[in-house]
UniProtKB/TrEMBL annotation:
Keywords: Phosphoprotein
Residue span, Response regulatory domain: 3-118
Keyword Acyltransferase carried by entry: no
Protein name: Response regulator receiver domain-containing protein
InterPro entries for this protein: Bact_response_regulator (IPR050595), CheY-like_superfamily (IPR011006), Sig_transdc_resp-reg_receiver (IPR001789)
Keyword Phosphoprotein attributed: yes
Domain of life: Bacteria
Sites bearing 4-aspartylphosphate, chain numbering: 53
Length: 118
C-alpha cells in the first residue's frame, strides 16, 4: 500500500480525497492544511507520495516540494490546484514532482497513471 500525505487547506476537499484514496487501496497516513504542517508531517510519517495543493496559506506547494526535495524524506509529489497548469508556468524542474492534476480532473486513475510514468 502506498503511504500518502494529503496537503490542502480546504478541509472538505482533503477529507473527500482521503476517503477516495483509502477506498482505492492507498494508506493516507496524515493530512495537512499548511506547508509548514506538511513538512513536519512528512518528516514524522515518511510518506511515499504527497498529494499537494499548490495554493496554501503560508507558502505554496512549489516551495513545499522544493523543501521536500532538499530533505531526508523524498516522496513523489503530485501537485493539485483549482487553477489550470498553465497558470503556474514551469514546475517540472523539481525532481520529486511527478505531475499536476486539476482539482476538477482528479481521479484515482489519473493519479495512478502519473505515478506509473515516474
Amino acid at each position: 500500500m502506498v503511504r500518502v500525505l494529503l496537503v490542502d487547506d480546504q478541509v472538505s476537499y482533503r477529507r473527500l480525497l482521503a476517503r477516495l484514496l483509502r477506498t482505492n487501496g492507498f494508506d493516507v497516513v496524515a493530512e495537512a492544511g499548511t506547508g509548514r504542517e506538511a513538512l513536519l508531517l512528512a518528516a514524522a510519517t515518511a510518506p511515499e507520495l504527497v498529494v499537494l495543493d499548490v495554493l496554501l496559506p503560508d507558502f505554496d506547494g512549489f516551495e513545499v516540494a522544493r523543501r521536500l526535495e532538499a530533505g531526508p524524506v523524498r516522496p513523489a509529489v503530485v501537485l493539485v490546484s483549482g487553477r489550470q497548469r498553465a497558470d503556474f508556468g514551469e514546475f517540472a524542474d523539481l525532481v520529486l514532482v511527478r505531475g499536476f492534476l486539476g482539482k476538477d480532473e482528479f481521479t484515482v486513475e489519473a493519479l495512478v497513471d502519473l505515478l506509473a510514468e515516474g
